[in-house]
TrEMBL record:
Record bears the keyword Methyltransferase: no
Compartments where found: Cell projection, Cilium, Flagellum; Cytoplasm, Cytoskeleton
Protein name, per record: Putative Growth arrest-specific protein 8
Naturally occurring in which organism (per UniProt): Monoraphidium neglectum
Coiled coil spans: 1-77
Alphabetical UniProt keywords: Cell projection, Cilium, Coiled coil, Cytoplasm, Cytoskeleton, Flagellum, Microtubule
Length: 230
């Protein structure tokens, strides 16, 4: 009985030693398993982060390509708009220059017509003065003659005087009309220059770039050049 107990104790001891011998590798293995599980979790996390980063990178690259395409389109539009602006500017400048030239020419023609008509009237007055001088008549004598003629001729003198006043009135009306035309053309010319300068400012074009300066006229409507019947 004692022998059997001794054998059992020996067996138990051997089993305990074997368990002890096997438990240490098992503990190490379990620890390694936990370490590997942590590494696997970290790997999965890193893998997910990498996938998300790749997705963000792909989206960013796609957005960059879209922005590059939009930038190219905007560049082409800007170039087209610049070409159109330059064409419009050239057309506008050409049109304004033509209008300015035509307006200036018309103003000069009208002013010459007024000057010619005024000169003709002055010539007639000078000729009348020469006739009076040749006849040795002064204004007082002429006035007395007119009074005597009026007494003698009555309605005849009134008719001649009325005709003279009518002619002078027509001439003066013609001069006024021509002066009014000159004033209107000058005003239209100046208004056009103001519009032209406003358009240049709107397009950001300095007037100095045109190479010429539009002339602002100062012709005004006035009583100069009218003929008096006295």
């Amino acid at each position: 009985m004692k022998k059997r107990e001794a054998q059992n104790e020996k067996l138990m001891y051997e089993i305990a030693q074997e368990n002890k011998r096997l438990s240490e590798p098992l503990a190490r293995s379990l620890k390694e398993v936990e370490t590997l599980r942590g590494a696997l979790a970290a790997y999965d996390k890193d893998k997910a982060s990498l996938a998300a980063a790749k997705a963000r990178l792909a989206a960013a690259e796609k957005r960059i390509k879209a922005l590059e395409w939009e930038g190219e389109v905007l560049t082409q539009r800007l170039a087209a708009a610049s070409d159109e602006r330059d064409a419009l500017r050239a057309k506008f400048e050409s049109g304004v220059y033509d209008v300015v030239q035509r307006s200036g020419l018309k103003s000069m023609v009208l002013e010459k017509r007024v000057a010619a008509l005024s000169g003709a009237l002055e010539l007639k007055e000078a000729q009348l003065g020469e006739v009076l001088a040749a006849a040795h008549l002064d204004p007082a004598t002429l006035q007395q003659a007119r009074v005597r003629a009026a007494v003698r001729a009555g309605a005849g003198r009134a008719l001649v005087s009325g005709r003279l006043e009518e002619v002078l009135s027509v001439k003066n009306a013609t001069i006024r009309a021509l002066q009014a035309d000159v004033a209107k053309v000058s005003k239209a010319h100046n208004d056009l220059i103001r519009v032209y300068e406003a358009k240049l400012a709107q397009f950001g074009v300095p007037p100095e770039e045109l190479g010429f300066r539009p002339l602002v006229t100062t012709t005004a409507l006035g009583p100069a050049g009218l003929v008096s019947g006295q």
